[in-house]
Amino acid sequence: MVSIPELNTSIHTLYHSHSRWLLGFLYRRLGSRCDAADLVQDTFLRILNRPRQFDGERGERSYLATIARGLCVDHWRRQKLEQAWLQQLASQPEALQPSPEQRAIIVETLHEVDAMLLRLPGKVRQAFLLAQIDGLAYRDIAAHLGVGERMVKKYLAQAFLHCAILEAELDGVLVE
């Protein structure tokens, strides 16, 4: 087991050895120095939460790049979701436009819902989206997924449970 001072020294060394390289790596992918710098910090925060030993510089960079790639995908997904919402919002009359504070809350909530959907098993997510977005009946969802209506009911119950948990978390009722 690594002691806290050793861990701090090792992460400090890792940061100073690779942060500039990682910034360039992310900048080439994102095209924005600010976004790249944010993801460099997020990468090292992830390492703080999941420390590990490496087999030399090549292993360190490989691990950092793996984490950074995942963060880039999350970043692009969040941007795409936010853009879709902003496009929808632009089509609304000005009287219905939310305040900047409300916009920030809505965007964060959209990201939370998106993350929750990604955590659902594939068929559960599909059933939920087919019911909520496409408005399909249980029998149509069952046919689409190749399962029985009873399984669709189970899938939707599971999805709604996750929605209720997310709602409670967003309302501050639940604490992790």
UniProtKB/TrEMBL annotation:
Name of one Pfam family that matches: Sigma70_r4_2
Keywords: Sigma factor, Transcription, Transcription regulation
RNA polymerase sigma factor 70 region 4 type domain residues: 111-163
Keyword Protein transport: no
Domain RNA polymerase sigma-70 region: 14-80
SUPFAM superfamilies: Sigma2 domain of RNA polymerase sigma factors, Sigma3 and sigma4 domains of RNA polymerase sigma factors
Keyword Transcription: yes
Entry similarity comment: Belongs to the sigma-70 factor family. ECF subfamily.
Protein name, entry field: Sigma-70 family RNA polymerase sigma factor
